[in-house]
């Protein structure tokens, strides 16, 4: 392998001390022992390592091998799927989004820690977690001074590299060299010893272009040549278009009230089709000169950059559809001075989010009449993906906005229920709710005020009467947050038994 | 009134332009109109205004008068009690702790917004809430340059003063003049326009000694002479002493693991007897040279200062028992260079809490087998006090610790339940749980691991088998967070029906 790639080796490994460390993925994987802990690059299908995990999974098919895997967020390239299928995981954190992995998590086959994405680095730095034996990181190149240049995501790569005993680098020739220079790697230092993070605007540069490590720790370098997995994003549909319109109506009200200008405030949007559609809705708006300070840039942000609507975007990962990826990376020169990629603890840092006063838009799985949001657990028990950065953002943002369609499964599920079956965002942290029915601005409202607004403005008409009945019965019992506890989860129980949350159907059964 | 107090007037109102604005409480109260919004000083019974609220309540007894009342936190001097009794409130935020007010809130007589204590100032600054007509603030004095010197709490006084249309100052002659100089008033500015908060250690001074306002806004000055209400703290009992020991055992483990030194990290403790007892437990520990960065300083912190265990304490309010108040304020000179009082948005700021890596200790009302915490709602519906600062701290601290006795009401209530009846702190934010039974370190654990640890280490033995049965039944159904949703709140329902959470009693009924 080494000889045929000499030109690439010299181009992409500028530190000559490292040039003889190029190995095959199989050799690198052979260093990993049963019981070890791995820190992998990768955040929402971008910038993940694409060779060593496969070689490792192959070993795990033939010998007893279980590892802990820490990542930035979800991995692409079917790595999470494969790890789950092979059964080689002991513990996985802090996020995933793969259907096979999801199934295995819910079957209890391995431990999954669903964590705020800004928090993992603190645990690594403070030695709370099992120490990392190998950091395995995708890179564009390793520079002369031994600095590793990440690819399409930064994730937790820096903290993994700094705290791992050893490092394996995958240099991916399919990742454009023009990525070099768009990263901004800032290390805040230990809690109790750190200075303020000197970041006040999305386009501030406060760190270095790559990850500086002790080069003795770089045990091997593997070459790959494979694009990131494209995002699985679904195009806007009629309902997500309407939701975007409601959100824009709300933002216009904020401008009218003098709380925003038509430059808005730095925008964050969660991963997924709804959030992407909402961003897409900004294309035809009067808002201008926008800034994005987010975790993940999806297709819509590049459309907004193309349209001159967004002037600058800071993120921790770029996750695009197949066609968008081709367009963006073949013309990357026209984007790179308007982009910064940061570590996820900086993109998601409460300090920075609160300071800038972001407008934060994330997707809810379900929410209740008092504004508590479930982002993670289907019917209270089955993990979907994880909380991701939604908690980092919603709690600290100027506006914590949650979007969801008001019903799911053709109306068999109401996304608005009496009492959410799992709480990821409490009533204290949810400012605005948007469904295709309308929006509810919950700021400054007590629970009883919120309930009426959410039911009348956001719930689907087919469930409104049922919600009103619950609320009226709860009101009879009183309290700051009235509930009929024995019925609080009855909608979920009804769904489990009868396949619908609609009570009338129950009466027929 | 004016003539008899001339000496005090000159001493305490150094800005001569203001000396003719001294009025009676009745006159000041007469300016307040039905429908207005008031911003009052006061945080956990300290530094509240003591005359104008009474004069206002008297008016409300005789004429239609309803107002919105924003404060720092709970008011002392029976003001919250009186406001609730008279029925003069439309909306109250962000915290209270009065039994009468609690009752009226739960009866739905007025709207109560239970808010993170660091968040109110953002809403005021951004004009999200109804604008403040009058800020009514207790002061030690008004200095030559028109700067208002707060008393035993800072709370939200600065942001109220800056944003109110008019200001009424109550100069309290009973508050020691030595308080001047211990405040540090820092205004972060608007979101999106602010710089990093330059605070890296509890003893950093970053602001001014008082609240600078446009003196034209000071409409009247009222003199009072009345001590703060003493705290209602209960002395440590056998169980809280044991809880303190468990916490100390945990902290020793952290030192052993190299994650802390015996100087620990800046400490925060919530209000209340349990938290105070836990702090008290540090008196006999080997920990030394401690720092406190908290909301409220209670008796125990002054004992720790006396013992030389605590070297410096930063807070937003000082709330003491009667005897401690006398001791501290008659010898205030020996404390004042070891204390700083800050606005609550700074004492509770996520930026500062995360940077310093606080050890945060707060009280849970109940918690569940997966580590979700209810801090506010008895049986899910009845407001106790409010979330206070617990969410500001737990989410951002190095260690988010929650303490609670494992049972309440002689065992009729288990503080550890299958599913909390209200969520204030999610599984993502709770690191360590301490009861008199032991402690559970939840960091790095998946829900299934947490459940076993919480049940076996923290639950009361009389409820352990019942919790195990629930958990085992839930496990049969699977999921990342196994539950039997139709039974998730059955313990609370059982208590409502049968006066106990114990199932065996149900079987007899």
Summarize the structure in words.
The structure is a homodimer of 509-residue chains. The longest helix of chain A is centred in the middle third of the chain and has 19 residues, at 238-256. Chain A starts with 5 loop residues before the first helix and ends with a helix. Chain A is globular and about 75 Å long. In chain A, helix 8 (238-256) packs across helix 9 and helix 13 (350-356) crosses helix 14. Chain A has 18 helices and 27 strands. Chain A is of the alpha/beta class and 509 residues long. At the A-B interface, strand 4, helix 13, strand 21, helix 14 and helix 16 of A face strand 4, helix 13, strand 21, helix 14 and helix 16 of B.
Write the layout of secondary structure elements.
Two copies of one chain form a homodimer.
Chain A: H1 6-12, H2 25-30, E1 37-40, H3 52-62, E2 67-70, H4 79-86, E3 89-93, H5 99-106, E4 111-112, H6 120-125, E5 134-139, E6 141-142, E7 147-149, H7 157-163, E8 166-172, E9 211-212, E10 218-224, H8 238-256, E11 267-269, H9 273-281, E12 290-293, E13 296-297, H10 299-306, E14 310-315, E15 317-318, H11 322-330, E16 339-341, H12 344-347, H13 350-356, E17 359-363, E18 366-368, E19 373-374, E20 377-378, E21 382-383, H14 390-396, E22 399-403, E23 407-408, E24 413-414, E25 416-417, E26 432-435, E27 438-441, H15 447-458, H16 461-477, H17 490-498, H18 503-508
Parallel strand pairs in A: 1-2, 1-5, 2-3, 3-4, 5-8, 8-10, 11-17, 12-14, 13-15, 14-16, 17-22, 18-25, 22-26
Antiparallel strand pairs in A: 6-7, 7-9, 18-19, 20-21, 23-24, 26-27
